[in-house]
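Q: Intermembrane phospholipid transport system lipoprotein MlaA, please. Structure only.
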Amino acid sequence: MKTTTSILSLRGFALAVAAGATLLAGCATGPNANPADPIEPFNREVFRINEDLDKGVLKPVAQTYVDVVPSPARTAVSNFFSNAGDVYSAVNNLLQLKGTAALEDTMRVAINTVLGLGGLIDIASDAGLPKHKEDFGQTLGVWGVPSGPYIVWPLLGPSTARDTVGFLVDWQMDPLTYWHDSAITYSLAALRVVDVRANLLGASNVFEQAAVDKYTFLRDAYLQRRRYLIYDGNLPEDQDNKTSPDTGDTTVSPYHRFTPNWPVFRR
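A: Structure for Intermembrane phospholipid transport system lipoprotein MlaA:
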């Protein structure tokens, strides 16, 4: 009962944040603003700052990391962070009532932590256990929480009001944030950023060459990708290219397929 109450409280909080952000965005912009991106001028400026930071700092550091650190060591680092990610993927799969996926993620963490030297070696994948990437932003979407406006955050990049709440919750669930030594926590966070950026070097080069309007390209790709993930790739036929005029998100919650008698999970 206590767990159910906590889940409903989280959902209510996320709904309030998404609704409040949408109202504030509506007040801050004109009636002709993009419904999915009502604070576009602000977002574009943050995007420009992030791009300058990436070109001046993050990308050079990531490239140096790739040039200096041997590939096996980089793979071990990626596996370590991936193993930590399986922890909150398991929790989010459970919250989405995906019991099989939650069990598989839990088994992945156990196997890779015990037999894979703390997650440095991905034994679970070699054993045939699939990896499921879930986050609390997806969970909120499955519960029927609207996305709210598109937001570009400094350093963190593209998000929405809903995904911002999801990020904060996932951060609290991340086992790597529970070190008592803050120096270790910050060092791990910095290494994770470098690892992620290094893994995106190839994709960013294609992005820089292909995109005419990089901001619009990234925004549309992000929103479409998030919808795809919420539905696990199984978008309803009438929702494939439809977005809500209020939120830029799909207008029908996928959760209605599993909980038709639970009004609290409906929009």
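A: Brief note, in case it's useful. The longest strand covers residues 150-153.
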